[in-house]
Amino acid sequence: MLTTIIVGILALGAGIGLGKALFAKNTRLKIEEAESQARKIVADAQTNAETIKQQKQLEAKEKFLALRSEYDKEVTERNRKLGESENRARQKEQGINAKNDQLDKQIKENEAIKENLNRQIEVVSLKRTELEKHQEEHIRRLEKIAGLTAEEAKKQLVESLKQEAHTQALALQQEIVDDARQKANKEARKIIIQTIQRTAAEQAIENSITVFNLESDEIKGQIIGREGRNIRAIEAATGVDLIVDDTPEAIILSSFDPLRREIARLSLQRLVADGRIHPARIEEVVEKTRRQIEEQVIEIGERTVIELGIHGLHKELVRIVGKMRFRSSYGQNLLMHSREVANLCGIMAAELGLNPKLAKRAGLLHDIGKVPDEESELSHALLGAKLAEKYGENPAVVNAIGAHHDEMEMQYVISPIVQACDAISGARPGARREIMQQYLQRIKDLENLALSYQGVEKAYAIQAGRELRVIVEAEKVTDNDSDKLSFDIAQKIQTEMTFPGQIKVTVIREKRAVNVAK
Fold first, then answer.
1. Is residue 60 predicted with pLDDT exceeding 80?
2. Is the pLDDT of residue 195 over 70?
């Protein structure tokens, strides 16, 4: 590059003119100065290049040292890990060697034990052979002494074991049965109920009497008691008239109320089976029987609603349905009538494209007003509707109950269905008897008349309504008041009621003092 510059300058100077010496001299001076500057630039460039080269060498050396330091660290870490792995491997090898030594020792011990067992087995085999010989000899001697072969003795032993096992099985069976009686009384009742449900039998509902059969006529004297105190206690506790006549081995229970007759029948059955018949025992048994009848009423109601496929019925309505079993309407059993109406309603509703379950529910409950817990001035239809509404029944069911005798306006389609099915059930030939219903109503009115007087605790119409037995509270009624009360009731019956023949009014006042010895 410098040579090119010089050549250019010389060419330029030759071109301008060789005659201009001064100019050439100046040019030479400038060329020399330029050369001097060029050399200086080259020297500076070489110095800078050397400096840069040294810096790059230093940086490369530092980077090399850093990489080498990092490599040394990695190598050191790898060596450390390798050392730890070697130590663990060495420890495992030592453990394996120790286990191998222990196994070798156990193998040697087992071999020794095996040899010992083999010797013992040989000894046992010899002894067993000797024992079998002795046993055979013993069996031969026993057979000779007993006169039986081994097979015959074995058969006798097996037979004895069979008899013993049979005896133990019977004892175990009896124990299981006793345990089941104690712990599963309700389950047993369910099984009995299911068995009865599968049996188709005709039902006969007595209207006013029940015959209680006896094993012998000697029991009649125990039932009557000394001076008739037992029979009076039974009649006072149950409200049922006991007729003891010449009928062999039988006592007639007379009452218009089937529930009372059932309580009296079961109470007599328990008393006769127990053998202890006296007034205190009679009252205790009658009270227990009443509680049992209450449970039976609930079970009858539950079984009825299950058989009809009715769900969600209030428990109080279930109890009322069960009470229908012991009531009659114009000689027709109320529960059988209600079940028949329920089935008819379900069939009719299904044929009409309506809800058969709702119709069946209304049919079952349509006469619940005939079995109230308390007397009411309302008709049985309106009272039944009130009870159904109280226990949360569907408004259609409530309306059907209240309207089945046109005492309430029909607002739902199932109401005329219930009314029609009620008429169908009651209109069957022989289903109802008007005279019996009137008689029962007269008996109820007779008892209610006596209960309307203050101080009267219980009132029972017995002997088919020919006698009214009134039990008063001793704290509220004196002996003189009893005479007056008997006269007043007789006069009121004579003036307000119509009845054939005559009615005897008996007022009973009894004072009891009860204390408990502890």
1. yes
2. no
* Segment (H or E) for 190: helix 185-197
Query: 73-78: which pairs have CB atoms within 8 A and are 24 or more residues apart?
Result: none
Q: What element of type H or E holds 219?
A: helix 218-224
What DSSP letter does each residue of 278-347 carry, written as one string? SHHHHHHHHHHHHHHHHHHHHHHHHHHHHHHT--S--HHHHHHHHHGGG-EETTEEHHHHHHHHHHHHHH
Half-sphere exposure (CA, 13 Å, Cβ side) for 238?
34
- Answer yes or no: is pLDDT of 191 > 60: no
Residue bearing the bigger pLDDT, 384 or 163:
384
Question: What residues form DSSP beta bridges with 504?
Answer: 467
**DSSP states of 360-402:** HHHHHHTTGGGS-SS--SS-HHHHHHHHHHHTT--HHHHHHHH
456: left (phi over 0), alpha (psi -120 to 50) or beta: beta
Give me the torsion for CA of 97, 98, 100, 103, rounded to 10°: 180
- 10 Å CB burial of residue 269 (0-12, 13-18, 19+) is middle
Contacts by 483-487 with C-beta closer than 8 Å and gap 24+? 483/507, 485/453, 485/455, 485/456
**3-state SS, residue 42:** helix
pLDDT band at 249 (very low <50, low <70, confident <90, very high): confident
CB 418 within 8 A of CB 359: yes
Token pair 């009076």 is found at: 232
Phi, psi of 111 (to 5 degrees): -60, -40
Beta pairing class for 328-329 and 332-333? antiparallel
User: Hey, which residues does 241 pair with through a beta bridge?
Assistant: 254
Q: Among 293-297, 320-324, 405-409, 422-426, which is the least confidently predicted range? A: 422-426
Report the distance separating Cα 491 and Cα 504, nearest Å.
11
Question: Taking 90 as the threshold, does the pLDDT of residue 322 lie above it?
Answer: no
Specify the residue for token string 């081994």.
150
Summarize the confidence of residues 417-442 as an average pLDDT: 68
